[in-house]
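User: Design a sequence. Structure:
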């Protein structure tokens, strides 16, 4: 008989279903038994212990246990505790009874960062642009495509980026890609062929980006980070690096802009060493309480690669991004991409070109900026009322905020949120393996929820905060 108990969230990977605390816990236990992750005879923790682990009331766990005992999933005996029943399925008095409701995957609410409100995609305006673009498209637009990308899109992007982000943009410098990850993959190949061995990255960021560089054969040492952004003025931090990956307008995930002195220091480093700066301008259009922070590329177009996408401003499913390259890199990046454009379809490129040229893109960005600012303000107000001890930072721009937590609280809050049907990310999720653990915090993406789900998600968040 099995007597051990594995930690609820870490080892059993129980997924709540967003039906309320008791129902969610019951369904998670049923699925664990069905899948075999809880073997027959396994002793469960006491209701007091499990309630403390999950951050819920003891009665919630006790009621869930009692109902599962009645259904035949669990057994309970004096002195023996609560165990998984020896049979792997519940007893049923009616053999024709309907099967149990399938477990719904994922959480009921999602406040993870990295996505805009997909329900707000401008379908009507996009369809109008698509009709106009396809009607006017030349026949050759439906061929295999130029690896540079459609000239129509590169032309309007050059104008838009110069106007909105201060980028020195020439259509001949722009290469269209299927998103930031694709662009970084291409740049990784080019840098490796140039015999670069290291690309420094920020001490907090996406592990996916580090992995893409590692897969290209590049090491990724981490650059120290503080309240002024990455510490680019420290020569030791960039010693040995041939390039550095930065999020200067709005550091991800801490939310701080790169201080002007450090922007200048990064460019000075690139000029003196021949290195490159890879600028991830992932949500540069969304700012609220400050003047726009222009793109770093404007300080030195020959030493900075500017990367942008439509993933945050429109939707990641479009798979449309761009690189504004130093002239010396254009040929190498195009060669790495291949003789034909296999990534971004010409019809979508033409549609985006028309969408921008018609002014629909600007109108959509202005509309979403107001929506996200309203949500940010509601988040700050709700925390001030219901969790006044929680400090909020990184909110002057972008689609996420950082909520400081008491030391040691990050994991327990995320676990408690999971059993409320709320998906959250902690700051530790984004820490570089070589960076010291400095603080406990949550990274709250207030852009990802739909309008109808936002109020419920915010309420669920406030309930789990210490």
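Assistant: Done.
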């Amino acid at each position: 008989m099995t007597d051990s108990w594995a930690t609820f969230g870490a080892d059993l990977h129980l997924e709540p279903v967003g039906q309320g605390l008791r129902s969610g816990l019951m369904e998670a236990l049923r699925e664990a038994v069905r899948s075999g992750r809880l073997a027959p005879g396994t002793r469960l923790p006491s209701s007091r212990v499990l309630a403390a682990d999950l951050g819920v009331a003891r009665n919630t766990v006790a009621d869930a246990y009692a109902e599962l005992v009645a259904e035949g999933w669990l057994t309970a005996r004096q002195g023996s505790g609560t165990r998984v029943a020896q049979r792997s399925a519940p007893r049923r008095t009616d053999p024709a009874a309907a099967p149990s409701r399938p477990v719904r995957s994922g959480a009921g609410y999602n406040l993870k960062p990295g996505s805009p409100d997909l329900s707000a995609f401008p379908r009507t305006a996009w369809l109008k642009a698509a009709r106009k673009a396809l009607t006017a498209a030349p026949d050759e637009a439906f061929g295999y495509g130029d690896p540079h990308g459609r000239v129509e899109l590169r032309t309007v992007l050059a104008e838009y980026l110069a106007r909105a982000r201060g980028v020195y943009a020439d259509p001949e410098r722009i290469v269209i890609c299927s998103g930031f990850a694709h662009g970084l993959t291409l740049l990784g190949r080019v840098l490796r062929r140039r015999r670069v061995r290291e690309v420094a990255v920020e001490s907090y960021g996406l592990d996916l980006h580090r992995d893409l560089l590692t897969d290209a054969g590049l090491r990724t040492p981490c650059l120290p980070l503080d309240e002024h952004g990455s510490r680019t003025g420290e020569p030791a931090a960039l010693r040995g690096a041939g390039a550095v990956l930065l999020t200067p307008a709005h550091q991800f995930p801490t939310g701080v802009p790169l201080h002007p002195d450090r922007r200048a220091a990064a460019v000075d480093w690139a000029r003196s060493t021949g290195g490159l700066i890879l600028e991830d301008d992932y949500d540069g259009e969304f700012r609220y309480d400050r003047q726009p922070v222009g793109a770093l590329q404007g300080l030195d177009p020959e030493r900075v690669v500017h990367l942008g996408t439509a993933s945050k401003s429109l939707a990641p499913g479009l798979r449309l991004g761009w690189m504004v390259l130093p002239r010396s890199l254009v040929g190498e990046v195009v060669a790495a991409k291949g003789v034909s454009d296999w990534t971004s379809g010409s019809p979508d490129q033409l549609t985006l070109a028309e969408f921008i040229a018609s002014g629909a893109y600007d109108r959509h960005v202005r509309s979403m900026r107001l929506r996200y600012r309203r949500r940010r303000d509601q988040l700050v107000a709700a925390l001030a009322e219901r969790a006044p001890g929680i400090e909020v930072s990184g909110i002057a721009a972008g689609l996420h905020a950082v909520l400081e937590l008491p030391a040691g609280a990050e994991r327990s809050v995320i676990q408690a949120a999971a059993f409320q049907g709320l998906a959250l990310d902690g700051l530790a999720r984004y820490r570089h393996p070589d960076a010291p653990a400095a603080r406990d915090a949550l990274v709250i993406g207030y852009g990802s929820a739909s309008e109808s789900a936002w109020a419920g998600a915010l309420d669920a968040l406030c309930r789990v905060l210490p």
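The chain has 15 helices and 17 strands. The first helix runs from residue 8 to 12.
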